[in-house]
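ESCALATION

Customer reports they have been waiting on this structure for their group meeting. Please prioritize. Original submission:
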Amino acid sequence: MRIQPDDKKIRSFTKLHWKEGRKVLFKNSSRLIEMIGNVPIDEVKGRAARILDSKELRDYLSGIWSSTGAWFANDMTRKLITRQVKADEFWEDAFRRYMELRVAGKAAGIARTEATMFNSLIDMIIQEGYQEGFSIDQITGKLKREIERRMGVIQNWEAERIARTEVIGAANKGSFDGALSTGLDIQKGWLTSGLKGVRDSHLLYESMGFVAMNYDYNIGLKHPGDPGGSPEEIINCRCAITYDVD
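Update from on-call: job pushed to the front of the queue and completed.
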């Protein structure tokens, strides 16, 4: 018998957390935009990464994992043994604790990326203002307007990337832990999305067929989206884990 996580549910969780992520990213960048004109620009840029690495961002990431991971863990156990063996609260707590060890690093990485984009936009918009012959006050006004507009466009894409990456990771980790918890004789397989841009390494993993559950496809990579894997393996990954059960 071959089983894999519910793809429709993955899309549903991704859409939900994409919307939520846009709000979190916008709220964080708004704090920086409000400083423009009141604080020297170099100081705004210097504070960017620290301000963007917010409690809201960390709570957002933890929430993705506790809700998504728990749902897929329970769903996989039900598919394998036709009953729920652990309460939702058990899995939610397990994934919340799992992310406590990782959320600070994840949030800091996202904040650094956001800060780099934010600061680059500041430099670009200031340069545009000088080229247009604007005064300092005009440049400040342009900065506030343009950085909010341009960051909004960037953050929409960034929120989608974050949601897809984290939901795929949480869904596959949830189903993986759920499968292990049953104690059944199970093998796992790597299933690519079939969409354009699949990594060569992921095509290789798929071609291997079914392997032991404790097999590492790469260092720290036990399944698609595994946070233990390198960023090159997991960011924007759309692959799924599948199981072969005797």
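Sent to customer with the following note: The chain is about 70% helix and 5% strand.
Escalation resolved.
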